[in-house]
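[job 0412] stage=complex_fold ligand=adenosine-5'-diphosphate status=START
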Amino acid sequence: MSRSILFVAGEGLPFIKTGGLADVIGSLPNVLAKRGHDVRVALPLYKKVIEKYYDQLERLGTIQVHSGWIDQPATFYKTEVDGVVYYFVEHQGYFERDGLYGYDDDGERFAFFQRAVLDMIYFIDWWPNIIHSNDWQTGMIPLLAHACYGDDYRYQNIKHVYTIHNMAFQGNFGVDMLPSCLGLDYYYFDNGSVKFDSGISFMKSGIVYADKITTVSPSYAQEILTEAYGERMDGVLRYRREDLWGIVNGIDVNDWNPKTDKRLAKNYDVRSYVSGKKANKKSLQEELGLEVRDDVPLIGLVSRLTNQKGVYMITDKINEILGMDVQFAVLGTGEKAAEDSFKWMESAYKGKAVYYCGYNEDLAHRIYAGSDIFLMPSLYEPCGIGQLIAMRYGALPLVRETGGLRDTVQPYNQYTGEGNGFSFWAMNPDDMVYTIAYAVDQYYNNKPGWKGLVKSAMQTDVSWERSADIYEQLYYTICNWSDE
Ligand code: ADP
Ligand code: GLC
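[job 0412] stage=complex_fold status=DONE, emitting C-alpha cells
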C-alpha cells in the first residue's frame, strides 16, 4: 500500500551536504519512492544551492509565514530528481549565507523554516500521511502541526516520525523563542514538554511530540537511554522508549560503486579488487605526494575533525601509529587543535603521512578506493556512513565498538576467518594503537586472511533495502496500514 511521506531536513544530497544526514536524505527517500510511495523532501534554499541549481528550480509562489510576532515572506521552489520531488524554502536573510548552521540566529532561522514547511503543505495542497523530520532543525514540527493548525483536520491526520541523527546537537534556545519566532504559547514551557534547562529544546520537542522516534542504529538507540550517551535527554528518551526504533543507515550503492565511480583511477569490483585497489593506491600516493609503494598498508581517514570522531586519540598517538610501516592519508576539517596536529603530522612525516585540510568530495572517493584500512575510532557514533562506504570500496574499517559502528562492522576472527573489519571496545588510545598494529600485522603476514576480509567487506550489504523494509513497517504501524 503506497503512502505519501514528506521528509524535512536541514541538508540533503544531491543539493547540499555537511555530513551523513545529507547522505541519508539523499538516498532513503529514493529507495522508498522506488517502492511506490509518494516521497518528497523539503529543504532550506541555501546560497550554495542557488549557485548550482537555480536554473533547475521551478518557482511555486510566495506566501506570508506567521513565525511568531512577525509575518515574513517565504518563496517555495520545486524540482524533481529520480522520482523524488524536492521543495525549497527561500528566505534570503536567513538562508543565503555561506554556511548552513552555527549562526547566532539559528533558532529564529529554523523556526521560520519549520513554520514555512507546514504552511507550504496548505499552499501546494498536498497532504502527506507522514511527515518525517530529522534532527534539531526540524524537531518542532510535530508540536507546531498540532498546536498552530489545530482546527484543520488535514493537519491533524498527519502522523509524525522524528529521527535523531546526533543527540549532541539539540537546538536549545531561550524561552522567548516560543512566542516570538514559533507562535507558540509559554504553556509548552510551563508544562515541561519543550523545557530544557531554563530555555526550550527543538530536539526535546521532537522526542515528546512525534508519534514515533527513530535513531540511526539499534545500538545507539540503546546507548542514548543511558546517562553516558543521552546528552541529558536520556530521561525523556526512556519515557518514550516504547516508541523509539533503532534503524541502521544504508548508502546509495549506485553513487558509491567502485565499479562505475568516475572519480577513480581504475574501476573494480569484488572479483577485480586486487588490481583495482593497487592502481587506485598508486594514483592516490602520487596525487597526495606519498611515497609510491604498493606493499605498504595505507590508512585513510575522511571525517569531520571533532571530538566525537575520536580524532584526539589519533593525534595523541601519531608517533606510535607512524612508527609502524604504514602510510596515513587524512581528509577533513573541524576543530583547530585537530587540524593543527594533522598539519604538524604532515610536516614531520613527509612522504609517509598527508593531511588535506578541507571538504573534497572527489578526494574522499579516491581515499576510500586507495586505502587498505579506514580509521574511524569514534567516541560515539549514531550510525556512521564512512565505514559503510569504506567496506563497499574494500578498505577495511577499523572502528571503536559503539553505536552504528558496532552494528555494521564485524571484527576479524582469525580462527574462523569471519569478519569485515577490525574493532576495539574501550575508549582508550592504547587499545586503538594495539588494534592498528594487529591489522597491520595481518596485512603483512596473513595475505589469505586479508583477502578474505576484503571480499567479505565488499560483499557486506550496505544498501538501504533491509532498513527500508523496517521504515515501511514503521510507517505501517503508525498509519494502521494493516487495517486497510
Ligand atoms: P557525520 O555525519 O557524523 O559527519 P558520517 O560518517 O555519518 O559522519 O558521514 C560523514 C559523511 O561525510 C561521509 O559521507 C564522508 O565521506 C563525508 N565527509 C566527511 N568529511 C569530509 C570531507 N572533508 N570531504 C569530503 N567528504 C567528507
Ligand atoms: C550524524 C551522525 C552519524 C550518522 C549521520 C547520518 O551525523 O553523527 O553517525 O551516520 O548523522 O544518520
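Residues 4-250+465-479 form a domain with the Rossmann fold fold (CATH 3.40.50.2000).
[job 0412] exit 0
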